[in-house]
Structures are given as structure tokens and as C-alpha cells.
């Protein structure tokens, strides 16, 4: 079994602003192993979210390659790329992006239904995952009836309900108070240990970054090893 979940080689991303080419990523090299927790830190505007979007197949690089569980994203058509994201990747953002007219259970079921699972099985699996993230008593509440931390736990449940190989997270605690952020951090570590999930987390939260297996810093368009002390 190949233990490499996500790999990128020579990844570059340029943007055009008038007559200028802006180089955001300049030959990024990265390899994520099965079950690994990786944090990516860096100054605001340095390109962390851009990198995450490229790793998740939500954007295309100027040059270089990204592979997910051995499949080269550049070699896939739109349908196959979408199916790969649905089956092998989960996404969590700073803002939960839940659908306000649907309950927690219905929001979590969505990726399963999109993937073709029947409604009965999707409901069973979404309920089980919501139980796992501590929301057994919030299954049929809509986002407006949930706290910020609860909404983010629903978003995490939605990201992991398909049992993806990797979950990509962009500032998952950035909109939460410190106590709630610490609860989310503990939840992520528990899910990693219980389900063997791999995480790539872009964050400014030094405590969250320090709790990961490995921390890389994005600067000048490339990734470099970073060392952080946990803030307790």
C-alpha cells in the first residue's frame, strides 16, 4: 500500500496583475504520509490558501504536479477530479459554509448523497459521524440554532463523513474564541488517532500548529521546516 496521500513537485502559481506576473508559489515540494498531521504557517497573503486550493484540485498550477492517492490531478477531467475530491478529500474552512436551510444531519449527508449513496445509508453515516464529534443532541438543529463551535464541528463532520484520505483545513479555528478553538484542536487529534485521517492545516494558531506532527512555513514561495513551542 502506498503511504503517500498527497504529493506535489515543482509547484508554481503565478497571477497576472496588469503588465506584471506575481509569483505566489515558486517550486513547492511536499509529501504527506497516511495518518500524518501537517500544519502550514506563514504571514498573511503569502499564498497558504492558494497552496491548499492547489492541493485540493480547486485550482490549477502554473507549472508542477499534484497527485492525490497516486492520481495526478493534471491528468483528470473535471468529472473525475470532482469525484476524487468527493471520495478522497475533505475540506474545512474558517467559516463553516453550512447550508442554512438544512439541519446538521442533512448538511453532513450532502457529500454522501452527491457521491451516490442512498438517503437511508447517508443518514445512518451522518448521524454516526455527528455522534463522534459530540453533536448527538444537535442532529436536527439548523446552523442558526448552533453555536460557532458547534457549527464548526458540523463542518468537520461533513468533511470526514466520506472517510477521506486527507482533510484540508484553512484556518479552522480562526473564527473561534480560545476555549472553543482548543476544543476543536482536541477533536482533530482524537479523529486523527481514531480514524487514521491525514490533515493539512493552514493556521495562524500557534498552539494548533504545535500540536501537529510537522510544521512547515511558507515564505518566498516555498515551504521550509518550522519549529514551534506549544502554547499552553
From TrEMBL:
<dbReference type="GO" id="GO:0044874">
    <property type="term" value="P:lipoprotein localization to outer membrane"/>
</dbReference>
<protein>
    <recommendedName>
        <fullName>Lipoprotein-releasing system ATP-binding protein LolD</fullName>
        <ecNumber>7.6.2.-</ecNumber>
    </recommendedName>
</protein>
<keyword id="KW-0997">Cell inner membrane</keyword>
<dbReference type="InterPro" id="IPR027417">
    <property type="entry name" value="P-loop_NTPase"/>
</dbReference>
<comment type="subunit">
    <text>The complex is composed of two ATP-binding proteins (LolD) and two transmembrane proteins (LolC and LolE).</text>
</comment>
<feature type="domain" description="ABC transporter">
    <location>
        <begin position="6"/>
        <end position="230"/>
    </location>
</feature>
<comment type="similarity">
    <text>Belongs to the ABC transporter superfamily. Lipoprotein translocase (TC 3.A.1.125) family.</text>
</comment>
<dbReference type="InterPro" id="IPR011924">
    <property type="entry name" value="LolD_lipo_ATP-bd"/>
</dbReference>
<dbReference type="GO" id="GO:0005524">
    <property type="term" value="F:ATP binding"/>
</dbReference>
<dbReference type="InterPro" id="IPR003593">
    <property type="entry name" value="AAA+_ATPase"/>
</dbReference>
<dbReference type="Pfam" id="PF00005">
    <property type="entry name" value="ABC_tran"/>
</dbReference>
<dbReference type="InterPro" id="IPR017871">
    <property type="entry name" value="ABC_transporter-like_CS"/>
</dbReference>
<dbReference type="GO" id="GO:0089705">
    <property type="term" value="P:protein localization to outer membrane"/>
</dbReference>
<keyword id="KW-1278">Translocase</keyword>
<dbReference type="GO" id="GO:0022857">
    <property type="term" value="F:transmembrane transporter activity"/>
</dbReference>
<comment type="function">
    <text>Part of the ABC transporter complex LolCDE involved in the translocation of mature outer membrane-directed lipoproteins, from the inner membrane to the periplasmic chaperone, LolA. Responsible for the formation of the LolA-lipoprotein complex in an ATP-dependent manner.</text>
</comment>
<keyword id="KW-0813">Transport</keyword>
<keyword id="KW-0449">Lipoprotein</keyword>
<dbReference type="InterPro" id="IPR017911">
    <property type="entry name" value="MacB-like_ATP-bd"/>
</dbReference>
<dbReference type="InterPro" id="IPR015854">
    <property type="entry name" value="ABC_transpr_LolD-like"/>
</dbReference>
<dbReference type="GO" id="GO:0016887">
    <property type="term" value="F:ATP hydrolysis activity"/>
</dbReference>
<keyword id="KW-0472">Membrane</keyword>
<dbReference type="InterPro" id="IPR003439">
    <property type="entry name" value="ABC_transporter-like_ATP-bd"/>
</dbReference>
<keyword id="KW-0547">Nucleotide-binding</keyword>
<keyword id="KW-0067">ATP-binding</keyword>
<keyword id="KW-1003">Cell membrane</keyword>
<dbReference type="GO" id="GO:0005886">
    <property type="term" value="C:plasma membrane"/>
</dbReference>
Amino acid at each position: 500500500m502506498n503511504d503517500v496521500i498527497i504529493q506535489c513537485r515543482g509547484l508554481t502559481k503565478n497571477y497576472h496583475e496588469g503588465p506584471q506576473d506575481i509569483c505566489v508559489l515558486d517550486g513547492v515540494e511536499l509529501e504527506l504520509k497516511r495518518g500524518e498531521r501537517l500544519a502550514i504557517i506563514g504571514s498573511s497573503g503569502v499564498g497558504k490558501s492558494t497552496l491548499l486550493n492547489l492541493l485540493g484540485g480547486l485550482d490549477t498550477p502554473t507549472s508542477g504536479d499534484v497527485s492525490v492517492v497516486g492520481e495526478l490531478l493534471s491528468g483528470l477531467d473535471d468529472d473525475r477530479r470532482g469525484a476524487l475530491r468527493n471520495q478522497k478529500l475533505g475540506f474545512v474552512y474558517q467559516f463553516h459554509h453550512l447550508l442554512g436551510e438544512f439541519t446538521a444531519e442533512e448538511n453532513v449527508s450532502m457529500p454522501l448523497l452527491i457521491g451516490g449513496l442512498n438517503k437511508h445509508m447517508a443518514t445512518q453515516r451522518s448521524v454516526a459521524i455527528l455522534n463522534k464529534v459530540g453533536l448527538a443532541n444537535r442532529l436536527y438543529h439548523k446552523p442558526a440554532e448552533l453555536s460557532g463551535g458547534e457549527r464548526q464541528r458540523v463542518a468537520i463532520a461533513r468533511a470526514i463523513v466520506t472517510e477521506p484520505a486527507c482533510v484540508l483545513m484553512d484556518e479552522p479555528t480562526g473564527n473561534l474564541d480560545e476555549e472553543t478553538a482548543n476544543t476543536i484542536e482536541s477533536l482533530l487529534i482524537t479523529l486523527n488517532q481514531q480514524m487514521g485521517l491525514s490533515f493539512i492545516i493552514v493556521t495562524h494558531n500557534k498552539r494548533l500548529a504545535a500540536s501537529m506532527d510537522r510544521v512547515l512555513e511558507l515564505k518566498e514561495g516555498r515551504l521550509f521546516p518550522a519549529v514551534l513551542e506549544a502554547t499552553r
